[in-house]
Design goal:
By secondary structure, the chain is mostly helical. It has one domain. The chain has ten helices and no strands. α6 (129-152) runs antiparallel to α9 (200-211) and α9 packs across α10. The longest helix is centred in the N-terminal third of the chain and has 30 residues, at 51-80. The radius of gyration is 19 Å and the shape is globular. 39% of the residues are buried.
Length: 254
């Protein structure tokens, strides 16, 4: 465990050295809320009560998705820059290495989402300790699930990093667009809504909104959402562990 924490602390230290990047992400979030959020809330006025709040949590979920995807990209970059063999040669198990990557992803998600989340909740008068805590917990679980998906797919990169990049870009577009990130499920067309139920972002977004006091009539059942988000996190991380154990060993990258 100490070796896992040491490796995770090293990666987090590298993450903190890029503090200017976090300020840029926070500024971009504020800009999107101020301009696009305000505009879209006027366009859907009367259909969704307090749509600006709905939209802001959706943006938060996209940030979590990007953070989870960055863990997979970080893993692939280690491989193609020749660093992965070094990490795998350390006195730490493959699953310990994966756990360190997961902790790195948790820290990355927290740094990117917690300040803007607290800011938007305070600005909208919805800030409560319990609501913020459980919403962050839901977002962290979602982030772990996304990280697991990206790491699970990283074996593609050992054959072709271009195919991996194209696949991740396409997956990102599908998971975000076919979800409740920007619009409630009950307002989607019948041919569209069943597809949205296949996106883990739908469950993560609705669960976070439920904890923050959004109208439950516009959301999925929170028990179902919590079960799906947890299952995705556990399932994809377990799959990642199997890939790290069986596929990476002996694979030539570069």
């Amino acid at each position: 465990m100490n070796r896992v924490l040491t490796l995770a602390a090293y990666n987090i230290k590298l993450l903190l050295s890029e503090r200017n990047w976090f300020f840029l992400i926070w500024a971009l979030f504020a800009l999107q809320i101020t301009i696009f959020g305000s505009l879209m809330s006027r366009l859907v006025s009367g259909k969704v009560e307090d749509y600006l709040f709905f939209y802001s949590i959706g943006l938060m979920v996209i940030t979590v998705f990007d953070s989870g995807a960055s863990v997979g990209r970080n893993f692939v970059e280690h491989a193609h820059e020749g660093e992965l063999p070094y990490y795998l040669s350390l006195p730490i198990s493959r699953r310990g290495f994966l756990a360190a990557q997961a902790l790195y992803g948790v820290a990355d998600t927290m740094l990117k989402t917690l300040p803007p989340l607290l800011g938007i909740l305070f600005f909208m008068g919805r800030l409560t300790v319990l609501g913020a805590f459980f919403a962050v917990l839901a977002l962290l679980l979602l982030g772990l699930g996304i990280s697991g998906i990206m790491i699970s797919m990283s074996f593609i990169a050992f054959k072709s990093v271009d195919i991996y990049s194209a696949f991740i870009a396409g997956l990102s577009a599908l998971l975000v667009r076919f979800s409740t990130v920007f619009y409630p499920l009950i307002f989607m067309p019948n041919f569209y809504s069943p597809i949205s139920l296949l996106s883990p972002l739908t469950y993560g977004a609705d669960l976070a909104r439920w904890f923050l006091g959004f109208d439950p009539q516009l959301l999925l059942n929170p028990i179902l959402a919590a079960a799906v988000v947890t299952a995705v996190a556990v399932g994809t991380l377990s799959l990642s562990a199997r890939i790290v154990d069986r596929i990476i060993e002996g694979v030539k990258v570069g």
